[in-house]
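Notes to self after the call with IL:
- keep both proteins in one doc
- input above output, always
- annotate only the second one for now

Protein 1:
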Amino acid sequence: MTALARSNRVRRTWWTDAVDRAGCTAYTVYNRMMLPATFAGTDVDAAHLKRAVQVWDVAAERQVEITGPDADTLMQRLTPRDLSQLQPNQCAYVPICNHDGGMLNDPVALKPRPETWWVSLADGELRLWIEGMAEAGGYGVRVFEADVQPLAIQGPLSDELAARVFGEEVRALRFFRHGRFPFNGTEMIVSRTGYSKQGGFEIYVEREADAMPLWEALMEKGRDLDVRAGCPNLVERIEGGMLSYGNDMTDLDTPFEVGLDKYVQVYDCIGGPALKDHVSDRRLIAVEMEGPVPPCDRRWPILEGDTRIGVVTSAAWSLEFCCGVAIGMVDRRWDSGTAVSVITQDGPKRAVLKEKFWK
């Protein structure tokens, strides 16, 4: 396996040394920053995530800050989701599209204070797009990358671990809500969000001086919970149908094609006119494959007979379900239950389109 060549072009995080010591065996590059990819192996990591609790260095989820009197106006201009419906302290999953309605990113956004938004990026250069839109539109805002690094707690025991570190009140935090909770003489923004189906929290660390004390507190308080360092898990996310920007969607795909149509609520936004007129002839769907499943580092054609009906965008082998689990983009004329072939670099694999994902 080729190693990642570390350099100043690929930025470290406040926890990189701790992640190295915890036994990270592979990193990926995400927003030009190091993101852990595996520790004991994807299958082992997935099994542990499903039964215990993990601490994830997700500092690569860079925070684009939009602050100023026009912050709310610009934020609504960027997304077809109706932000006027949000409750105080609510996080928002916000598709952001280009003028053709293609997906530029699918971040989570929240307001840490009045007239300020943090846009928690999936992989991509969305900051430059937002800066350009702010300048072109003459909005009264500043747009910059905030020096905020998120740390996640994920897994079925995450409530217990979070309560031990932040107090019992954190258990009452509702899904996709955020609040401020005490830690080490200060307060931290904690949200009930995260990139797994197991549940958990994300902590927005605003000072490097608090980073390692938080990591150490989580590891110490979670010792009897079998807490481990972890990371977003390929197998677990595919089983749950969680999408990865750059893998399962790009700017060539609209929200309607990637199952995000419920977030297209207003059309007075960038890409709104294109979305209003769009007719989607493709959709994302679960694909169950025979094994073994090679690394999905390219898009695999999906054939029904001799007809190409789509592509697999992400795939892995699931020990829990004893099959290959995959996400495919297919022509809407083909329904679940259709037997297909997936053409991998290791040859064709028998597969079937599924109505629902595994989790």
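Protein 2 (the one to annotate):
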Amino acid sequence: MRKIILSVILITMLVLSIFSIHFLVESPTLGAHIVELKLDTGDTAWMIVATALVLLMTPGLGFFYGGMVGKKNVISTMLQSFMAMVIVTVLWVVIGFGLCFGPSIGGFIGDPSSNLFFNGVSANTAWELAPTIPFILFALFQAKFAIITPALITGAFAERVRFWAYLLFMVLFILFVYAPLCHMTWHPDGMFFKMGVLDFAGGTVVHMSAGWAALAGAIFLGKRKVQKTNPARITYVLLGTGLLWFGWFGFNAGSAVGAGSLAAQALGTTTVAAAAAAMGWVFLDKILGHKLSAMGASIGAVVGLVAITPAAGFVSIPHAMAIGIIASVISNLVVSKFPKGKIDDALDVFACHGVGGMVGMLLTGVFASKAINPIVGDNQGLIFGDPTLFLIQLKALVLVSIFAFTISYALFFIVNKITPLRVTEEKEELGLDISQHGEFL
């Protein structure tokens, strides 16, 4: 049955790709937040680079996660990230972009009908909020955010998930969790956008959604047979951290959608927050009586990158440092106190990405300044004496948490009804590299 379904999907995609001739015509149609392109070659060049940098983060994540799992699960874990680049890219072109940035349906989701197969996604028009770069470049930049989000989730159910079930979950997650959150947060007609929620590069859309989905997956799949395994390659973790940190400059500075002062500010806050968080993590480890470890420094840096993501273009450099330190301390404590005997979040995705994203969202409401970004307006952060923005961020945090966890858990339930999510005990003991892919290190 699986062979028949896959054959039908491939044939259908091929036929639609070949015969949908009008989709290949670059339409200059304006309206629905699509405007005339005011091409700036500097902005365009930077955004091409930023798009490539964000894509690099996903294989970086593969190394980061792959080094943490046991030796018999390295290939499968890394392949989960790689296949996100494959599946989500195709899904994005076919329907995902339209769901996120198509004409709004009630402020909740986009209407994909006008952008199926990138219909109307032209190199000669522009998105309203990015008028100096081609619309197609904006769409491809956003695709890289969609790619890495389900890949982040995989760390929670590492070493026990069936690969084909994961692929199905990934598709459903993009359609029913990522797309609504992206539309609500970043579309001018989105519900959160109109509320005044500030999320510069993905605190809600990427990290909170992935964190809560990870927790749902860890609960639904249950514990591994052996929860404590030695990391296969700590050098992979260091390499992955470096690639993530490097790519994150595209993630955050690229979200300025231009090569200007805001991009420079976001780049600065990003690297400072990561460094401060890595320092905070290893210093706290030492205070608590642990050794200063490569794993700790790597995880701390990534937590800082997560936490600064929603705030990157709204806060000062010193406040970015504070965000990094606060987030790393909180995430470190959550990791140490997390009930691992009951909930097996294998690589602490919720504690790092989920909690880090939530801390970043709230601290955006504390430190956001109109001196850094005029879009903040009069509702500045709590530290400037106005609680309005902080309360808006808190409200969004609660709504996103409930939505992401509930829908993700439902999707795990549905996928498990279609095809079992979890490998058998025998295959888990053998290792996913051999049992799922017939390969080994």
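Annotation: The longest helix spans residues 388-418. The chain has one domain: 39-424.
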